[in-house]
Structures are given as structure tokens and as C-alpha cells.
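Course exercise 7: structure representation. Students receive a sequence record and must write out the corresponding structure in C-alpha cell form. The form below is the worked example handed out in class, using Probable DNA 3'-5' helicase RecG (673 residues). Read each field label carefully; the graders check that inputs and outputs are placed in the correct fields and that the protein name is recorded exactly as given.

STUDENT ID: A-19
EXERCISE PROTEIN: Probable DNA 3'-5' helicase RecG
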Amino acid sequence: MANRTENKAGASGKARQDKIDSPISELKGIGPRRRALFEKLGVRSVRDLLFLLPRRYEDRRGKKNISALVPGFPAVVRASVRCAETKMLSGGRRITTCLLSDGTGELRAAWFNRRRLEKTLADGAALLLYGTPLLHGDVFEMTEPEFTICRGRDEQEESSFCGIIPIYPAVEGITQKTLRSAAKRAVEEYLPFMPEELPQSVARKNGLLSAADALREMHFPQSPESWKEARRRLAYEELFKLHLLLAERRRERECCRSFPLVKGARFDAFVSSLPFSLTSSQKKALDEIINDGASGAPISRLLQGDVGSGKTLVAAAFAACVCDGGAQCALMAPTETLVEQLHAQALKYLAPAGVVCAMLKSKMPARVRRETLAGALDGSIDVVTGTQALLSDELHFKNLGAVIIDEQQRFGVRQRACLLKDGGRPHLLMMSATPIPRTMAQTLCGDMDISVIDEKPAGRVPPATRVIDVAALPKLLRFIAEEIAHGGRVYWICPRVEEDEGSTLPAAGQRFEWLKKKLPPIKISLIHGRMGAEQKDAAIASFRDGKSQLLVGTTVLEVGVDVPEATVIVIESPERYGLSQLHQLRGRVGRGARRGVCVLIAGSGGETERLRAFAATDDGFAIARADLEQRGEGELAGLAQHGLANFKIADLRKDFSLAEEARKDAEEYLKNK
Ligand code: ADP
Ligand code: MG
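STUDENT ANSWER:
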């Protein structure tokens, strides 16, 4: 983007742009010491400083006469010093008090530990003060008011003290006053050199301010309304740039050639070997995927669907079509446990259709590994499942036609990018159970198409969710014992491994011991984040095989673990999770014939309301929206951090219609260029 502006503006434009990138030490008042302090915040150039935006503002418009002050309400006052004195307090503190008057009344101001302040506050000096007045007897008093000394009736002084005052993010060792005056200098002396990076047509269409005007307004707003306009302008630019980049990527992808996707013999065999038929939502998603491939360009698609909606099945159908087109697939999951599970699913669905499936694990017999690698290379193996580490390092395919990523929400965006670095252009299909609202998904994963499975296989009854309190624990234990006696299995989720000092949180290890005592002869396994991969796998395997019937653990269980016999999940401290995360956990049970039950052990506090609302719905998308409103981006934040969407100003929670606008504009702009 910067390049484009440069080209248009030519050499003089370049010089202008360089000016905005001058080191901040060129600003008056910023020497080596302050420069170093700013650098800690990543602020090096004047441009950086201009983008160090206020965290909030103080509305100091309109001065008040002392007689018109209202106790407790902050105000600006202009008054003259009557007298000032400093006293020592116990403990070596000093207090400077000052009596001021403006002809309508008297005001006392007090500051602590300010050296020689009483000298500054010479009798008769005129001051502008900002603070919160409180009544002491019948005299107003302000403690630690901000102030400036007025020399004569200086308009400028007054305007920089009154107005709407920016409060900047704290920079250690630099006062707000210094930050403000540095910003003021940058705005006055450098803003005219701010290059305009938005295409004119786009700015005009959306009625946007210039970058320079918007930044001035962000630092020194004239009114809340004009500030909003400025913020909109800057947020739009961030979104537009991102979408332009994404659209360019997409365009580049569309120029590549890739393997055809064919509903051929293996696909037909796959479909006829299924004991059920695909839901119409699954069919629709699959058709979108296959039609997408008809252009010959590699597809890049995110398949979203609630837990248990049958995404993995769609992925298997897609893999069959890739194989029918004469190519191979790499199938990825985020952990070894999930890899094993995914491989088992691949075997179950694809092997009957004549697709040769193999798996790579970190620990496996050397001979099997060699054979698997050789099979991928000579094309005798069609599908290889593994974690990302295994797939990216040593594995080479004869004809890699597609990369399929399950539980994509666990991979960062950047990791996905390096997956494709080998130069090949396979199709990319990713599955995600985090139901991201569409606009947000388009911004976070915007160079991808999106399909949604919004229906679950028929006959599936959503788990019942109960909110109980600790007093009901004995009853819960009886229920669990009964459930297990009837062939069910139970997950018990604790938030942390060990008890933190002073924390009242339950710990998985302690809970494990406690449950062992309370529930003999039930076999219990333990899993938590500090265990090695092998131990974890062993714990899950033992639970899956029914050697243990109760699995106590932390949220490592969260993603994708599929044990159809599991019917109950107990979640301690549910208030510690986002609703989407709870929904994921809840999706672990009721996958088989028996109905699932999710038990939330609510702590004290006002959380119960939120949990009850959660218990009342099974709509993952509605839950994700509620989560966004209540907790911010939550799990999405992880995605955003890794990704391109590293916004300073735009906020996907609020700016979704702006993001949508920017996306359309970027596509339009690229088309007409
Ligand atoms: P997801 O990956 O979305 O969590 P899966 O593909 O693992 O879901 O499917 C969940 C369960 O539902 C699996 O046991 C699967 O066999 C079953 N299933 C998938 N699609 C259907 C369908 N169309 N009809 C009946 N059962 C289905
Ligand atoms: Mg799945």
C-alpha cells in the first residue's frame, strides 16, 4: 500500500513520507532519556508517536466560576493565588497548600511532595486548575489538581488546558503533560506530511476525513461526534488495508492450477458405505467445496460447524473426491491424541472406499515410519494423518492435492501460512468448531471462503445442562455412580493443575484423589497440561477403551476428543470459561445413543444468571455472539494475535459493518485497478 502512494506521489512524495518517519528525537523536548523511554513502548518515529493514541479523554470544556462549582464534579477554574505555603507532615512528607480566588469565591488547593512549589505559586499568579472540588466547611478544596500558570491572557495556553484533553497510555517516566506536548508538536509540525494511503475514490465514497485530520482529531478532539468520525476513518483504513491484502492473495491463488475434485468411484463407494445419509447441510457444504474446485484453482475454505455437526465426515467426503481426482491428502490435527482419533475416523470412512490411509506419530516403529514416508512419496498411500510438525518436516508427497486441517481454531494463522511454503498449491480445507460470526471470520481468515454446517444429524438430542451449587455434590456423586453402572462414562473438568497459593480453585490432582476415595470401585484417570504427551495419550486411551470410566482433567480435553460412551461432563468453576468454550466442552458428551448431561458447579457471585442462560440454549452461534458481547473476542483473540488482523484501532466486535464495507470496497478497488 505504501508503495502505491509512493509511486503516485513521486519523489517529492517520498521526501514527505520520510519526514513523518523522522526519529522522535527531532521533536523539541525529546532528548536521549525520553527517547529511550518511548522506545520501550515501540515508539521510535514521529509516525509511531502520532499513532500512540489516547486511551481516554477528559472533557474540560467550559470553565466554571468558583461559586458555581458542584462538589464531586470535576471542573476547570481560573483563579489567582492569594497565598501559598509548605508544611512538613509526619513521615517526612510535605504538603503545599494554596488559597486562590476568582472574585466569586475562594478555593483551596493542596499538593504533596512538590519541591519548591510554593515559589512557583507566587502571590497574584494566575492559574488554570482542573480537579474535583470537595467542600470542607464552606470552602472548596481540590487535592492534587492539574494546573498551569497563565502568563497574561494567553488564549493558546487556555485552549491546550481546557478543551477535550487526551489521556495517553502510561509511559513510565513520562508525565501526561510531556506526552501531550510531544503529541501537540508532532501534530502541528509533522501532520501536514502525513501521506494519504487510502485511494481517493474510496475515501470519497465513504465520506472519510483525511488521515491527517483524523489523527489531529484523535489527539485533540473538538467534540465527541467529530472524534467518532476520526476513529471511523482510521479503523476503516486498517480494515481496508487488510482486506486489500487478502483480496490480492485470493487473486494470486485464483491464478494457480490445482488437482481436479471429482465425485468418482471412491466417492460413490464412500457414500454407499455410510450407515446413514448426509444431512442436507453437509451436502450443501460439500457441494460448495467441490464446485469451488471446478475453476481449476486451489480452493481455500473454512468449514464451520458446531461440535458434532459432522464436519469430519464432510472432510472425508472431500478427501475421497481429491483421491478420485488422482491426488493425495495430508490430514492434520493439533495434537497426537486427535491425530489418532482422526486417523481412526479416516480408516472407518475411507478405507471401505478403497482409499489407503496411514498415520505418522512422533513415536512409532522406525520400519512403519519408513514405509509410510515411502508410500507417500511413491503415491501408494492416499491419505496421511499427522500433527503439523510431522507433516511439515519430513513428509513428501508424489501428488499432494489437498491439505485438510481439523480443529483449525487451535492453529495460528501464521502456522497455516508456512504449511504451504513448499511451493505447491494444494487445496486447503480447514474445519473449525469455534463458531465465528461470518463478518469476523471474513476479516480474520479473509482470503478464504466459508461454508457453514448449521444443522446436526437427525435424532441427536442436545445435552441437558444443569447448574448446581457445591451443596449438591453428594447428590452429584450418586448420579455419577449410577450413570457409570449403566455403562456411561464421565468427564470431570477442573481449571488448574495445582492449587495456587491463596487460591480457592479446585485442582485436578486433588480432585482426582478425592474422587478415588468417594467413588470406589470406579476406575479413574487423570489428565492435565503438565503431563507428557505419552501420559496424556495413555489416560485418554484408557478412558476411551473403558478401562477407566471417569476422566478427571483440565481443559486439555476441550478439543475434539470423541468418546461416544461419555454421557456426563462435570465442569468446576465454569465462570472461568467463555461460553463458547463451555459449549465445546459440553459437546464432548451425548455423542452416542444415550443423552448427554452437562453439570456446571457454579461458584458464588452473580454468575449463575449467565450460566442459566447458557444452559437454556444449544445454538453455538448464538452462544458465540453472547460471548463476544460479554468477554470480547475471547478465543478469537488468539487467532487475531497470530494473524494479520493486528489492529490498533479497529475492533471487530464493534466494527463489523465497517469491516464488511471495507471488504467490499477493497474487492471493488482491486477489480478496477
Ligand atoms: P464434528 O467433526 O463436526 O464434531 P463428526 O464429523 O465427528 O462431527 O460427527 C459427529 C458424529 O456424528 C460422528 O459419530 C459421526 O459418525 C456422526 N455423523 C456425522 N454425520 C452424520 C449424519 N449425516 N447422520 C448421522 N450421523 C452422522
Ligand atoms: Mg471433528
